[in-house]
Automatic annotation (TrEMBL):
Coiled coil spans: none
Pfam families attached to this UniProt entry: p450 (PF00067)
Native organism: Streptomyces solicathayae
Family membership noted in the UniProt record: Belongs to the cytochrome P450 family.
UniProt keyword Chloroplast, yes or no: no
Protein name per its UniProtKB record: Cytochrome P450
Keywords: Heme, Iron, Metal-binding, Monooxygenase, Oxidoreductase
């Protein structure tokens, strides 16, 4: 990507909403050079695409914005090759990848995680509450989701920081321009993460536990040829067939995808929500502090107003017409959840952040078959955060000596840093 296009893409990603508004007012679809895609901006069109998986494939949903250098690819070759995941598949393949996520992210499973999430959130808050100020993204917003996702997957707590770091580095490598030296370092971090995930997959294959990693192994690398689904032999290598290289690569890809999706988006949602509650005259924060019954609605308004995952790409599988625009087979569209959630035809005053708004069925967590299976877990962590912070930090405010700058990405939109005082 040339420097000029990178600058334009950065500008767009830091504040995509003016472009969205223009695209919603424009007849048909708008082609956006910076995204190399047709922008699907209106709520009705976004929902239509997400319900037409046969016509709009998810195979290239996460096409990188930046292609790593050949040297970085050389480092990545020491890890595991990319395989399809729940984000990049459709139909029966998508259902196969999604099944273990659905089972482990059910309402009852999320409820089981809440005491642990509460314990972790409280401990994090205890760590800085006496300081009078903190940079929230580093001290809390990146740490709580990582701990919760680590618990869900089945990580030893000592491995969580490295796993979270590797997830951030994978996102940087594919979506942020870096020098070759930095690319090589990021690629090595990704490889280290993949080998960590592989060790967990092989350990759970030998001896399953009650965690998501074991559920993924059971679903994606099921029983032996005799049909026995229980491949556990208490670690006895003579009785338990080894995972094949393809199975290991598929498990690593899916664990990596879930890890990144599970903590990056919730981190973004926590940061953006606190920012919008505290900006301007803090009226929304004071309202929430005084009326905690508004917390569930505040969670939905925050997800709608500044959507963490702004959208995904889709690729047409045949010639189609959308919003009056004729698209050939193989055309790329960017399905903008963030734009749909600001659609004037669906929301009154959509550019106003109002936690008293009656919650509606926004598309912040997707729609249809690809709706986010972890949406309830993300909501639960944000509700917990708002409950704790309004109770223990009622005087919370944005630090006056730090400007809030949004991260230039459409994958987990959030403040780069969020300095707070109380």
């Amino acid at each position: 990507m040339d420097a000029t296009r990178h600058e334009r893409l950065d500008e767009l990603q830091r504040d995509p909403y003016p472009l969205y508004a223009q695209a919603r007012r424009t007849e048909g679809l708008t082609f956006v050079t910076e995204l190399d895609a047709w922008l699907v901006a209106r709520d009705a069109d976004v929902r239509e695409v997400l319900l037409r998986a046969d016509d709009f494939s998810s195979e290239q949903a996460l096409r990188p914005d930046v292609m790593p250098s050949p040297a970085a690819f050389g480092v990545l070759a020491q890890g595991f090759g990319k395989r399809p995941t729940v984000v990049s598949t459709d139909g029966s393949a998508h259902r196969r990848h999604r099944a273990p996520l659905n089972s482990r992210l059910s309402a009852s499973r999320v409820a089981e995680l809440l005491p642990y999430a509460t314990e972790q959130a409280t401990a994090l808050l205890d760590g800085f509450v006496a300081d009078g100020r903190t940079e929230l993204m580093a001290s809390y917003a990146r740490r709580l989701p990582g701990a919760v996702i680590g618990r869900l997957i089945g990580f030893d707590p000592a491995d969580v920081p490295a796993a979270v770091h590797g997830g951030h580095r994978a996102e940087q490598l594919l979506f942020r321009p870096m020098s070759e030296k930095d690319q090589l370092a990021a690629a090595q971090d990704v490889v280290d993460l993949q080998h960590l995930l592989d060790r967990y997959a092989r350990a759970r294959h030998a001896e399953p536990r009650d965690d998501l990693c074991s559920a993924m192994v059971a679903a994606l690398a099921p029983g032996d040829a005799d049909g026995d689904p229980d491949r556990s032999t208490h670690g006895d290598p003579d009785r338990c067939a080894e995972l094949t290289p393809d199975q290991r690569a598929e498990l690593v890809s899916n664990l990596q995808n879930f890890l990144i999706a599970g903590h990056l988006t919730t981190t973004a949602l926590i940061g953006s929500t606190l920012f919008h509650l505290l900006r301007d005259d803090r009226a929304q924060w004071e309202l929430l502090r005084d009326r905690p019954e508004l917390i569930p609605g505040a969670v939905e308004e925050a997800a709608r107003f500044d959507t963490a995952v702004q959208g995904f790409r889709r690729t047409t599988t045949r010639p189609v017409t959308l919003a009056g625009t004729e698209l050939p087979a193989g055309a790329t569209v960017f399905v903008a959840y963030g734009s749909a959630n600001r659609d004037e035809s669906r929301y009154a005053d959509p550019d106003v952040f109002d936690i008293t708004r009656t919650p509606s069925r926004h598309v912040a967590f997707g729609h249809g078959a690809h709706g986010c299976p972890g949406s309830q877990l993300a909501r639960a962590q944000l509700r917990l955060t708002l409950q704790l912070f309004t109770e223990r930090l009622p005087g919370l405010r944005l630090a006056k000596d730090h400007e809030v700058v949004m991260r230039p990405t459409l994958i987990h939109r959030s403040p780069l840093e969020l300095h707070l005082t109380w």
